[in-house]
Design brief:
heterodimer, A: 13-stranded mixed beta sheet, four-stranded mixed beta sheet, B: alpha+beta, Alpha-Beta Plaits, 2 domains, two-stranded antiparallel sheet, 7 helices, 18 strands
Chain lengths: 289, 296
């Protein structure tokens, strides 16, 4: 095959035993901002230096060592453990390395990330992958709203990268997306791809209402069932898009289960949104119409 | 040196630096992938008159192609990167895009890339769209049977053209049988093509001519019907000569193709294996037959 290389691919030079482990000292309902938990900041730092990186506990500025027990140093592979449902901004802006979250995680996971990989072995809060520009996020559970979306007031959102949600995702996934790929193997809420500029959103479960509202370009692909489309979408044709086969094969390589009939099946193509540029498409797997 | 009683002349093939590109063409089935591949590699036997040398590098199963459809590997060789861009644009546009159900992908990791899909996209008249998967950019051009998918750019790397050997035989049928056997053996070598018809050239050339303005002419030294009138290189008993020309993406591929081809050609009716060169004065690569065959 040709030269597919992963943008912001993981730095595989470090050994598994070189991981830095962060354990939340105590569960909390107070929001914790931990945007200094990134491989970029950890890679060259000693343990004592990592412990002194800034964090916020509510509105109080603290250091990471106050909140997390840190074990390890000088690595771009991080493991985060504990009850992290109120911990936000982990992996924000990262460009390399790997973060492995061993539980649920709070909002803004991997926002603005440029490379590397984040894996969440639980659910993720809202705004996972917001404004992402490279790398990969994989959420084994459900994700909240605004996955891969742009923040309010922003005209452009995700620019590159891949987000895979292996459960359900909330509303407005991929809003104002500019490039990249979002995959939801479960259901997606309403307004998926709202005001999308380009890129691809794949939903294998149920695609919610008002998908593609205001979409300029890009592709929303419904492999499962979907709500009736907006009246500003027009039926074009039935076909077997070749580009989908390439994407689906890559998903299989990443371990996302793809049934053979998906890559060989027929899709009904709808173009829209005619209230915007109208060069976007919603592809619906034909057996579920 | 002899192989199967066939003399191997102690000489070398003189080959040239060229640029190579490798493309995967897929289609709904093998028939249409092969149709596109045959047409896109047509009229591409020699740089001299065609500007490009091209050939089929092999069939690909669905598991080996980016879109998991049957495919064919095609290689192109030109004298410059600029020529490569020009020929890929023309050939992929006129011969692959026009072919039913086709799609086209780069198959060469190279530092240099030429924009092809990125230019052919304009055929979509504003209705084309792009898809970026990691660092691979594809263009989807709306066409009458659906969409033509082509990669934005294709890799180009330094390569070698003009590797060769000559089969000197006692008759035309025996020369052809030996050449066919050589071609069948070389087909399995990755990274090479034999650009001439069926892989074989019957009208080998030499530099120069008695006619003003003509740069090449028939290889008189190897023409049996005029052996008494020229400075012939033919030993007694030779009545027909055929040549195998090999283009390859690297030296190793050309050497291996030469090796397996010569071995296959050394059979009954063949008297000698030789090679074409210009005294070593023109080409950047010299493939010495004995050296290639010595390690076998």
């Amino acid at each position: 095959m040709g030269c597919v290389s992963c943008a912001g691919s993981m730095n595989d030079s470090a050994d598994e035993t070189d991981e830095i482990i962060l354990r939340l000292r105590a569960p909390s309902t107070i929001p914790i901002e931990a945007d200094s938990i990134t491989p970029d900041l950890f890679a060259e730092r000693k343990q004592s230096e990592i412990e002194k990186l800034p964090a916020f506990y509510g509105r109080r500025e603290v250091v990471l060592g106050d909140l997390f027990a840190v074990e390890g140093e000088r690595s771009d592979r991080i493991v985060v453990q504990g009850d992290l449902g109120h911990v936000k901004k982990i992996g924000q802006g990262m460009r390399r390395g790997r973060i492995d979250v061993h539980s649920d995680i709070g909002p803004h996971l991997g926002a603005h990330m440029r490379g590397g990989e984040i894996t969440v072995r639980g659910n993720a809060g809202d705004w996972a992958g917001a404004h992402m520009a490279g790398g990969r996020i994989r959420i084994h559970g459900n994700a909240g709203h605004h996955v891969g979306a742009g923040y309010p007031g922003e005209k452009k959102g995700v620019n590159r990268g891949v987000i895979i949600v292996e459960g359900n995702a909330g509303s407005r996934i991929g809003a104002v997306m500019r490039r990249g790929l979002i995959v939801v193997t479960g259901n997606a809420g309403e307004f998926a791809g709202a005001n999308m500029i380009a890129g691809s959103i794949f939903v294998f479960g149920h695609l919610g209402k008002r998908a593609g509202a205001g979409m300029k370009r890009g592709s929303i692909v419904a492999f499962g069932t979907c709500e009736p489309l907006l009246p500003t979408y027009r039926f074009e044709s039935v076909s077997q898009p070749v580009f989908l086969r390439i994407f689906l094969h890559r998903l299989q390589e990443w371990g996302v289960p793809v049934a053979p009939e998906m890559s060989q099946g027929l899709f009904r193509r709808y173009s829209g949104d005619i209230t915007a540029l109208g060069k976007g498409e919603i592809l619906i797997h034909d057996s579920h119409e | 040196m002899q192989i199967n009683s066939v003399e191997i002349e102690d000489t070398f093939a003189e080959a040239f630096k060229m640029y190579g590109s490798r493309v995967i063409i897929t289609a709904i089935n093998e028939r249409w992938a092969m149709t596109a591949a045959q047409v896109v590699t047509g009229f591409a036997t020699s740089i001299i008159g065609c500007g490009c040398e091209a050939g089929i590098g092999g069939l690909l199963s669905p598991e080996q192609t980016p879109d998991r459809r049957p495919g064919v590997l095609v290689l192109f060789f030109t004298m410059s990167k600029k020529d490569m861009e020009k020929h890929l644009l023309l050939r992929l546009g006129q011969c692959v895009m026009t072919s039913p159900t086709s799609a086209c992908y780069n198959d060469l990791n190279a530092d240099t890339r030429v924009k092809v899909g990125g230019k052919l996209r304009y055929f979509g008249d504003g209705f084309q769209s792009s898809k970026l998967l990691e660092e691979r950019r594809l263009w989807r051009v709306p066409v009458m049977d659906g969409e033509f998918v082509i990669e934005e750019s294709f890799g180009v790397k330094p390569a070698i053209g003009g590797g060769n050997f000559l089969i000197l035989s006692d008759s035309q049928p025996n020369a052809l049988a030996a050449a066919e056997a050589a071609v069948d053996a070389i087909v399995g070598v990755p990274g090479v093509i034999m650009p001439f018809p069926g892989g074989i050239v019957r009208s080998g050339s030499k530099v120069g001519s008695r006619y003003k303005g003509q740069f090449v002419s028939t290889n008189t030294a190897y023409c049996p019907t005029i052996r008494q009138q020229v400075d012939s290189a033919l030993p007694e008993g030779v009545n027909a000569v055929l040549e195998i020309v090999i283009d390859g993406l690297d030296e190793g591929a050309v050497r291996e193709a030469t090796r397996v081809g010569i071995y296959a050609a050394c059979r009954s009716g063949v008297l000698r294996i030789s090679a074409g060169n210009y005294g070593g004065k023109l080409g950047q690569y010299h493939f010495h037959l004995h050296e290639i065959l010595d390690g076998s």
